Amino acid sequence: MNMGVELEATQSVVDEKLIYVKVHMPFEVLCTYAEVLHIKLPIKPNDLAPQSSTYNCFTRHFYPSEDVIAKEPEFFTAPFRKDQLKCFFVKDKEQFFTPAMRSRMAYYILSRAPYEVRGNVKKFGFNKLLDGGVYKAAYPLHDCRFNVKSKEPSCPNERFLLFNEWAHPKSFYKMQPLDLIRKYFGEKIGIYFAWLGFYTVMLTLAAAVGLCCFIYGYTTRESSTWSKEVCDPQIGGEIIMCPQCDKICPYWRLNSTCESSKVSSQTHRSTASPLEDCGIWYDLCLPSVVGVIVYRLAMFITFSSNLHSHLNNRKELEPFKEYVTPQMATSITASFISLIIIMILNNVYEKVAILITDFELPRTKTEYENSLTLKMFLFQFVNYYSSCFYIAFFKGKVVGYPGEPVYWLGTFRNEECDPGGCLTELTTQLSIIMTGKAIWNNIQEVLLWLKNLMFRHCTQVSSEKVIPRWEQDYQLQPMGKLGLFYEYLEMVIQFGFVTLFVASFPLAPLLALFNNLCEIRIDAWKYTTQSRRAVPEKAQDIGAWQPILQGVAILAVATNAAIIAFTSDMIPRLVYYWAFSVSPYSGGSEHTMAGYINSSLSVFNISHFIEMKRPNEEITPYWFNNITTCRYRDFRHPPGHPNQYDFSIYYWHVIAAKLAFMIVLEHIVYFTKFILSYMIPDVPEALKEQIKRERYLTQVILHETNIQHFKELMKPIADNLQSEIEEPELDLKV
Fold first, then answer.
1. For range 499-504, the mean pLDDT
2. What do you get for the CA distance between the two ends of the chain, in Å?
């Protein structure tokens, strides 16, 4: 590659097949390309007084000691201009440009340097040489070893400081040294860890609220009227429920769901709080979703007919009899199958998204990353959340009634929820997928470490030879072309789980908090010890991920409102308490929840079963004698009514209340968000003052520089005029 006079290169020959080329940039070249890239550099120390508060007195205990990591001095900065070098704060030429700036400028030159010219065809950019195998790798060098402290106090080992004060497990409670991270790795990685830290702080607040809701729901589940009535042998034990599938499902007593009703009651209480290239590729998601639904329908029939007999025949499983229901067994097994399918399809969707983006031929790297980000997120959104959306908003919603059930694909009878609702099943699905995803990601990190260890072992040389830094770094894992893309994607998917379905699983923020506390340190350990130093990139924000996060947050308001309104039983209970527990719908004069179980279950005459759907006599329970009706979860008129099996007035009251609740809650949340956005500025006042001061100083320096340049141009003319004028008393000055 022809690098001209811009870069200085030295070679290190390891063997005949492997040669290292070390590239260095002289100061003059650095100045030239700092101006080309509009890099901001210090012009004057910041003379604005720092603002202190009682909050800082509390948080300073969680920051690394300034004796270990010295606080970076603050400067007013301006885009660099080579002809105005004297205006910038140059204390030491060797330290004026940080290593991250040097690496960024070297990458800029190498990515545009020509390496072959044939006629009018000009080939340039070392990335093509890397893809073609001419070069095996290209990377900036780490400073020193990560586990050796510098012996010179004036020149600290920044890699060691980052490992010891950031990546080490003992620092899990400390704030991140963001200035040092940005200085060592560049702006883009610094912004990522700043965003990740802020997100983790917000998770701490959400986890505290969710934990309080969970504890409240757990401590009051035994006292809830719903669970008391379900578990009471005189109430729930006397209510006979209709079969939930055709022919092979038996009648069952309501109190057989006693334990799951307690969990459901706990969950209800805790919830009181145009890509056309993709209309084809998203069809890949549908078969997996439909396949899991069909599995659920088929396995529910199997568990309904065989589960209780297996539990009764095996004494070692007797303690689990009260907890294991056909719905729970189906939910758990389907959740694990969904997790496996999700992990498999992740790789498929990744390749499809990259293929589509490459086919589009974006003009710039930023456009490429933004296009790929949107596609990958949409694929992952469908992949991860489709099963949760099915349970939350579709399961048990269109099931008909025992006499005329609704069928999937004309064969499988649609699933019904437990008498207490589908929230317990949704919580199970979320916990299994979230936990399984976190475990799988950590397994991948361990495999990366093992791979790195094996690579080092295979490429190690005799201990007598001192291995130079570039050879040590070559043994580390490359960063990959997409850089932080997968780190952001992982966190955004987690953000979706935490926000979209938090009403059904209040512990989701707590699990995410534990995961992120580990994730920050694992990523820090990976960047400082296991990976080659990343090529620094300029960044002002998190890019295309910001509108995606905003969209998820807006959608989360609607999904949680819908979960509370349509998936939980909170609204039907409130409607019963305030309207149907007193006159004229009831004989009582005081509002109460007593009798809610009876009002929430409709009646079906078993003689109305057609022969093809009637339960087989051999599976009819022994206690099922002289019983003419069974109950099912819905609000319909009883048999014998002029409008039998049609929706009752209770149903329409509940629907109206659900819609009203959803609309009111959304407006309250959005209005609160608007007020907070208005009250809390995007840019703090102190930073606004610093920006104004920076602009003013830049203008002053540019003005003074132009005047000085004009003086230098006019000085020879003034000297000539002075010498030609005879009067000595006349003094010409510019």
1. 88
2. 51
